[in-house]
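[audit] Reproducing an earlier prediction to check determinism. Same input, same settings, fresh worker. If the tokens differ from the archived copy the diff job will pick it up downstream; this log only records the rerun itself.
[audit] input (703 residues):
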Amino acid sequence: MYIIEDLKICVWAFLIFGRILLGKLIGERITNSLYYIDSSTPAELIQGVYLKKLKLNIEKLDFDFFTLRDDKGVSIGLRIELMDKLQLRNSIKKNIQFRTVVERENTNSYKRYFLEKQIINNDQFTADSLYRVQYLLQVASWKASSIGCGKVVFLMKNRPWKEEISNYAARHGVRIIWQGSLLDSRVNMMFKLLYRIILRIFKRLKSILNIRRIILSKKHSVNTFIADKKEFLGDLGSTCKPDHPCIAVPYYGNLNLDRPELNSDLFFWHRSGLSGNDILVMFEIPQVPFDTGEDLELRRHGINAVALNPKSTVVETLPIFCQAHHNTDRLKSRNRISLPTHRINSVEQVWIEKQRKVFDKRYAYWKEFFNNYNVKLYFNWNKYSAEHIIIADVLRHLGGISAVYQKSFQEFPWYDTTTVSDLSFNFSHHNVKIERVLGSIIPYHVVVGFIPDYRFPLLKKQAKEIRKRLLKNGATYILSYFDENSKEDGRWWQSHDLMRVNYEFLLQKVFSEPRLGVIFKPKKSSNLRERLGPTLRLLEEAEKTGRCLVLEGGTLKNQYPPAIASLASDVAIHGHLHAGTAGLESALAGIPTLLLDREGWPISKLYDLGKGKVVFNDWESLWDRCMDYWDFNSRSDGFGDWSPLLDELDPFRDGRAAERIGTYLKWLIDGFKAGLSRETVLSDAAQRYTKVWGSDKITSVNC
């Protein structure tokens, strides 16, 4: 079986004119059918007309994320994401070029950590991600097994770490031919040189045209134009410096300062004793720009704000930080990497050099920002991006502190969560084991409990109102359902079609069971109705009964927490076992909570809670069990009961996790205000915390 990753005109040409050559490279004449993963439109049109005349059948490989399972019933896509990526990363770290770079004495440890995380740390859906490579190789192996083919050859695009990828492929019975090897290297070099010349000419012409347009569009001088632009955008690159150290917090779409029961990027602030002036909120995402609503809300509480992107604000008065123009290539970097002298044109070397430039450029950016705004503490949940490592390095040299907090339940060492930070606030000690396996560097790993638990008592009144509304319309028992996001292309993740099946099952039950009330709490509600497609009509009909409700609000993520739905319900259902945060929140709120594992994740410890009691693999068996519970109140046999695991997942369970974080942050910022060094501030806060909550609550990870 032969698979082509990306069918383009150049590959099509080789299939026709280089058929004999390709056969020689593979070692045999091509007589079987070929498959391709993706293709350009011209290539598809041409192959449809001409390749059939040459009796060379080629078709798009059909596969689905949901159906791909190994012989143990484990989802292949999930296994790669949560296990295989870490194994491949560890293999690449042994690459001679990579080791030569990271073991150099003049390469500081933070840059090394950054490079290690960046090996695989990119969006899994992008064409160049190593997740996609591993996934496609598993798809090839699965397809060969399904059709009884003993040999698989994969024509794959040229990319870094070919040796390690080829070894991974060989372990799964796949041989890779790298697409770049089909073209003469001199031809490649000629095309690259021609491309660079054309690109340089284009940029020069664009620059000339822009200058001409600016001059002609203004009656005054270019200086007047710049002044006008500055007045329109705000104070670009503002050097406005607060009079005391502050905490910088990124904005991800939810403030809710006056509604603490809802999701909030400033959840820690409410019971912390921190003043509004201690906080600087950073607006960077164009999809959720700073507007007059956020302006009034922040002003009302005395909280400062800044935009890191002109497109992330529609309020002209908001300061906009734009980095001064530094030529990082000319800067004498204190961390410059010396590359090995052999294989000077390797794609690995190009990748390393590119990452080095990214690190240096972003380092300069954050250094200027933190200096300008007197930031001494950076607080964020996004440890998935390698950017947090750069930030940690900058603050370390500026005498500040980086802190991250756990946002999602994590059972396995998911590679993307590898963390390098001074502080990490986590649910329980369970995460210490995970961080050690990942190779995270955390001097102060602080156990605080399940962070959103402070909302449970705040949500009870609103949850009661929701329940009363459904009961008034005829419901006698109510269940809530939590979903994850979905993708249109079901090859790479859960598809819209799979999501629709889940919704359709419950919606049909609303019509067939007049006693049933259903509350849907989607992870992302802003585009739910669009993703539902033809199922939307069914939802709208169910809503008319008054026994069906969708909790919608927020742009990037739903502003409603799962607990508001579960507290209004008799039973809560989380539709995806591999992502169990909503289920954990519901269980901690005291509601019988079920997990639906349709994707295939039987290796989870959550199965220990009992298959047929907490964990189910299909809707029919789950529904039958719910009916037994409602009709006979049969919870005594462990129905929806998470109690055997809750102490391990949250050792506090007292509703004070956010308060503990807020208090900790206040101790830190007060220390900086007193003029103490970062080492003293960190040490003092740790001592105060252990004195109150116990010496076992703070651990050092890999330090």
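[audit] rerun output stored. Observation attached for the diff report: Residues 185-217 form the longest helix (33 residues).
[audit] end
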